[in-house]
Amino acid sequence: MVKVLTALLILGAILLGWKNNWWMRPPPCTKPISYAIGSFDRRFDISQQRFLNALAEAEAVWEKPSSKDLFAYAPEKADITINLIYDYRQEATEELGQIESGVKETEADYRALESAYLKLKSEYEGLKVVYDNEVARFNEKSAVYEAHVKSWNESNRTSKRDFEALQSEQRALEEEISRIKVMENELNQKVRDLNSLVDRLNRLAKTLNLNVEQYNTIGASRGETFAGGIYSSGPDGGKIDIYEFSSHDKLTRILAHELGHALGLEHIGDPQAIMYYLNEGETGVAAKSDLAALETLCAAK
73 in the Ramachandran plot: left (φ > 0), alpha (ψ -120 to 50) or beta? Predict the structure, then answer.
């Protein structure tokens, strides 16, 4: 009876896999990846048609130079769903866009923007110190808790008082994790705000021919990460979630980047490439390094 039940479960899993077609996907580049629009938040102030136009341009980034039919819009039956999700990331981008739109190309306005940058940088650094201290304290408390758990497991585990103390420690740690996560989100938003201000300052300094050092973003990297969009896949198919873009060109590049992931492309080291991990490029075309990676992928059939 057990063997029969096991066989039926295996058969069911095989049939489910066949239905979803996630364990027998065709080799790369042999069949167009179909996509459809899923969640579409109107707070982005973009119509579905304009969004589809950006998707068509993102398709062309890969299809035109390779002469391959790699993607197809198929709302009735799609391999991947593309979602437009509005959250704090786009809110920050829009706020900075309003600030920058009011800045004229004068040295006085440059100094005003510089002052805003220094204020925000100071806020970030202060919050970072608090965050680092909170993480250090959490790690210390977590180590103590783990020692208590180990001691409990090695004991006869009959003390209700000790057990309740462990539960209390665990709840306290969970509360601290929640507070730390809130601080992480605030830090990430400040970094993104700083990145946008830095780009504006550097461009304005260059335009005005000011004899100043270019500002750097917090951290080692420069540019806008492609975290504005994320591709993921699973048994039910793939999806691309778009969270942030500051212009039509940025949206097209993010979509092209995530479509590249849907094809099976990984990040590459060329800063001008669509598949570079930072959105630093200015053009809407694939770099030679992108096309070389695509050719290698398509050849591995």
Answer: beta
> At residue 2, does pLDDT exceed 60?
no
pLDDT for 55: 95
Question: pLDDT: is 11 or 42 the higher one?
Answer: 42
Token duo for residue 27: 């080799």
Q: Which three-class secondary structure string do you get for the chain? A: CHHHHHHHHHHHHHHHHHHHCCCCCCCCCCCCEEEEEEEECHHHCCCHHHHHHHHHHHHHHHHHHHCCCCEEECCCCCCEEEEECCCHHHHHHHHHHHHHHCCCCCHHHHHHHHHHHHHHHHHHHHHHHHHHHHHHHHHHHHHHHHHHHHHHHHCCCCCHHHHHHHHHHHHHHHHHHHHHHHHHHHHHHHHHHHHHHHHHHHHHHHHHCCCCCCCCCCCCCCCCEHHHEEEEEECCEEEEEECCCCCHHHHHHHHHHHHHHHHCCCCCCCCCCCCCCECCCCCCCCCHHHHHHHHHHHHCC
Q: How far apart are CA 203 and CA 288, in angstroms?
A: 27
Mean pLDDT of 20-29: 59
Task: Write the CB contacts of 158 (distance below 8 Å, at least 6 apart in sequence).
Answer: none
Q: Is 90 exceeded by the pLDDT of residue 255?
A: yes
- pLDDT band of residue 87 (cuts 50, 70, 90) is confident
